[in-house]
Amino acid sequence: MNNLFTKYSGKLLKSFPFFVITLSVLLSGNLSAQETEIGFGVGGFKYTGDLSRGINIKSIKPAGTAFFRTNLSNAVSFKIGATAGKLSGADSKTPIDPFSTQRNASFDIFIFEASTVFEYHFLKWRSESTMIRWTPYFFGGLAIFGMSGMDDKSAEYSNIQPAIPFGFGFKYILNPKWYVGIEYGARKTFFDYLDNVSGGDGVIKNYEYGNQYDNDLYHFIGISLTYSFYTIPCPVSPYRKNYRNR
């Protein structure tokens, strides 16, 4: 099974650049100028796997992100980002069942992630004719993450793994150069050792194993501030507009 995941993830890594180039060419006809942005954000990482199934605010660890974005059209953006932070979990904090209580496993690692994603904005917030200052959006793409801090490995595995990030968020225009955003995203992995726990021999009752058919996930939620190198239309209310024209 692990060989299957490795083979599949390798194909994703090889095919993704061609997907990026193809989509960029298709959208290039709508470009009037190269519109770029940079930004940073703060938030937290959350783990889901054999040691944690639910959402526990106490298990969220601090993380930060920085990114570069280019707007391919009014609706679609392409973003390259780097995100880093702590990731941890423990059976003692969120015991799933008596089995996990007996296992009493835990981990505390550092994650560094590099990602490329496409964002689709649902509202025409960039149009000069609109009064809308905000928009929800959806994103998806490809990421590679590295782990450090796992000193005693329970199996042989690479510390660098691929993932598929996807999620949603909201953006709000502060002024023609700055806007803020809030985002939630999950990372689908092809890997079951984020928590250093996976399948084992069920005959040996040492309780030091998990479900090898259920890969681990991690999540990021945060708030960001973005600077735009071009002017974002910043609408005002009709009352203020008519008042200035008097």
Features:
246 residues, Porin, 8 strands, 44% strand, elongated, disordered N terminus
Brief description of this entry?
The protein is of the alpha+beta class and 246 residues long.
Instruction: State the helical fraction.
Output: 10-25%
Task: Indicate the structural class.
Answer: alpha+beta
Largest beta-sheet details = 8 strands, antiparallel, barrel
What sequence of helices (H) and strands (E) makes up the elements? Answer: HEEEHEEEEEH
Return the CATH topology: Porin
In the CATH hierarchy, the architecture is Beta Barrel
Overall residue-averaged pLDDT value: 78
According to CATH, what is the class? Answer: Mainly Beta
Broad shape: elongated
Domain tally: 1
What does this structure look like?
It is elongated, with a radius of gyration of 22 Å. A hairpin with a 4-residue loop joins strand 6 (160-173) and strand 7 (178-189). The chain has 246 residues and is of the alpha+beta class. The protein has a single domain, classed as Porin (Beta Barrel). Mean pLDDT is 78; it is low at 1-10, 24-33 and 237-246. Strands 1-2-3-4-5-6-7-8 form an eight-stranded antiparallel β-barrel. It contains three helices and eight strands. It has helices spanning 2-27, 98-103, 238-244; strands at residues 35-48, 61-71, 76-90, 106-121, 134-148, 160-173, 178-189, 217-228. It is 16% helix and 44% strand.
